[in-house]
Each structure stands twice: as structure tokens, then as C-alpha cells.
Amino acid sequence: MTRPRVLVLSGETLFRSFFDPPRARRLGRGFAWTRVADRRVTPRLRRLLADADALVTTWDSPRFGEELLSLAPRLRLVAHCGGEVKARFARPLFERLVIANAPGPMAHRVAELAVTFLLMAARRVDAYREALRRPSNRVYARLHLEGAGKETLRERTVGLLGFGRIGQETARLLRPFGPRLLVHDPYVATAAVRARGGAPVTFARILRESEYLVLAAGLTDATRGLLDRAALRLLPDGATVVNVARGGIVDLEALTAEQRAFVEMFVRLDGKLNWVSQELKVSYPTVRSRLDEVIRAMGHEVHGAPPAEEKARAAEQRQAILDALAAGKIDSAEAISQLQGL
Asked: In the chain, where are the structural domains located?
């Protein structure tokens, strides 16, 4: 009996990450398989496709249009090692072929990355790392005086846009941190969302209320450019967007337009961040963070606030410490310690 011919489209190292020796032996017992690492449709790949009964693809494989049906007339099955298939294969192929994916193995890793980014943003890891590299203990003085405030995920509003395997795994990993979890996915039952600790909401509401928004939806014709200029404007000022989906979901030109709008306001208000803070009705650190994001987007390194701004901020902190001492909130020893840390 002739074994079905399977064409594996993957480089050797990536293939081994999916097929360890026992799995490769099982593949060999059931099929006559050939591996090719071509990342585009080459003459060699065309010859191999002509005899293929099935394809095994990875994220390193070529994307195929409807011409795949003529290139591989015997083809019946495509097995994709990954989750995203709708953007990799033309829509008519789904009507003529069985196209299967395997998102499960990657869901935990992607969700883990999403939670990592959320924690980095909430705990301001980059800002503290930058501050601790300077010869000053000012960062500790601010913490001693003001506390950590909102530098936590607990009771903060996190939105999950997309609630497939990655979204659900992200919700599971977030549960111990105690955020308020909003979910928008029109293809997932309300009961399934609530069972995993989320509150199902509309698209507009998840944008209006999310302090942190995680994008975990698949890239389709319906989701391409979903976060356009109008959608981004609905987000609260200072909101953080974590995209562990495809880049095409966000209209990057619109994001750039939002940054330009911030720069225009910054210039209009003579570069005074405290005035920007008042106009946007957000905290000074939030405004400083947004300015740092613009600086990085322009390809420059953030070196901290200019000397004049640092001097003014230090004066404000000294006055706050003295006010706290006068109000009896701290004793003289604590006040001296905090002043020395500036």
C-alpha cells in the first residue's frame, strides 16, 4: 500500500522543535514525508507540491493563495503548527481543503508574555530601572511620601480583546493578581467568559474603561485595523495597549497621529508638563511617561527630565515633605531621611 506523501515546510531547527525524534519516527511510519525550508514558492517547491497529499506548515512557511489548488492537485489536508491560519491561507482554500491548526502548545507562552508586559507597565519597571541608574535616591523618597499608588494590577481594569485560547489563558494567569477583567469577543458565549472571571462587554465599553488593553484576537478581514484613530481616542488617557496578536489589528498610522497630537499640545503649552497634566486631567507621571514614549518612537534614548525640570520637581518634593512634617504625618527623623534622599 502506498503511503500518503506529506510535505513539511519548515527549517530543520524549527521542525525539531515541533517533532522530537519519537514524533518524527511516528511521522515516518505513517507517511512518506519530505521537508523543505523554502520560505517562498520556488521552482523546487512547485515540483514537490505537485505530488503532495498533505502539507505541514509553520510560521516560517510561504503564505498561499487560491493558486495552491492548482499547484497541489492531490492536496487534501494542511496541518499548521501554530494558531493563526486565516491570514496564511486564502479564504477559498478553507472551502476545498481541511485546514487544521494547533494553537494549544503556544497559548501559554503567549499569555505568559502578555502578563509579563502588563506587570512591566503597571509596576513601571523601565522607569524604576532608569531611576536606579542615577546617583540619587529620589525614587525612594517619592515612594515613602506618596506610596506605590496605582502601581499594581490589583483592582485595575484590564481588557481582553479576543477570548480564544490565548485570551482565556491570559485570564487564568491574571486571576491571582486581582484585576477587574473586561472581555470583548462576539464569538465566545457570555457564560464562558463569566466562568473564567471576566465580564463580557461591548467593543466601545472595553475601550472606554480599560486602563490596560490586551489584544489577543486573530487577524481577519473584520479585525484588520480594528484599533483605528476613532477607537484609540476612546481609550483613557495614559492607557497601555499590549498586542500579543498581529500587528495589523492596530492602525499604526493612527497611533502615530495620537502621538503627534500629544506633541502639538506639548508645544502649545510651552513644553510645561504640569500644564499638559492639567489639560489632560491625568497625573504628572502619566504625562511624563507619554512624553518618554514619543521620544523612544522618534528613535532617541530617554535620559530623564532636563535639569530645570528636575530642580522644580525636587523643590515640589521638598515642600511636600515639609508639609507632611508640619501636619504630623511623619516625624523629624523620617523627614530628614527623606530630604537626604532627594
From this structure: 5-102, 106-250, 307-340
